[in-house]
C-alpha cells in the first residue's frame, strides 16, 4: 500500500486558462465567466494507479500575481513538477513562458539537484485565430528543456487528462 503526494505548480500569464484547467482536471467542469482569484488556490486530485497504489496531486494554481511573471520561493518550494500554460491566440502569453521557466528554474530544483520536470500546454485550440506555430513551440521546448508540450482545449476537454497522465509518468520515473 503506497500513497504519494506530489506538489504540482500551474503557472502562466493571467487568463490563459490555469484555473479552468485545474477545475476541468479535478472536477470535470468548465465555467465560461472569468473570475480572477487572489492568492493561491489548491486543488487535490487523487489518482488510483492500482488497488494498492494511490497518487495525490496537490495542484497549486497561482492567482492574482501572474502580472509579475515571477513568484516567491515559498510558492515553488518542494514542487515535484510544473505545468506552464499559454493561450494559442495570445502571442505574448507564449513569449512570457520563457520568463516563467527561468523563474521556476532559478527558484527550485528537485532534492537531487535536477530541474523540476516542466510541461508546456498550448490552450484554447478550440479558437480559430492561432498566433503561435507548432514549429515555434517545438523549437522553444527543445531549447529550454521542457519535458514535452501538447495542444489542449479546456473548454472542449481535449488532452487535459492525457497531458496530466504524461506528467504523472514523468514524475514516477524520477521517484
Ligand atoms: P487563468 O487566469 O489563467 O486562471 O484563466 P481562467 O481559467 O480564469 O480562464 C480565463 C478565461 O479563458 C475564462 O473566460 C475561461 O472561460 C476561458 N478559457 C479557459 N480555457 C479555455 C479554452 O480552452 N477555450 C476557450 N475558448 N476559452 C477558455
Ligand atoms: Mg486563475
TrEMBL record:
Keywords (A to Z) from UniProt: GTP-binding, Lipoprotein, Membrane, Nucleotide-binding, Prenylation
Localization of this protein: Membrane
Main location: membrane
GO BP annotations, alphabetical order: endosome to lysosome transport; phagosome-lysosome fusion
An MF annotation (GO) of this entry: GTPase activity
A GO cellular component annotation in the UniProt record: membrane
Record membrane topology: Lipid-anchor
Purpose: The small GTPases Rab are key regulators in vesicle trafficking.
Assigned protein family: Belongs to the small GTPase superfamily. Rab family.
Name used for this protein in its record: Ras-related protein Rab
Naturally occurring in which organism (per UniProt): Branchiostoma lanceolatum (Common lancelet)
Lineage, top ranks: Eukaryota, Metazoa, Chordata, Cephalochordata, Leptocardii
Gene name tied to this protein: RAB29
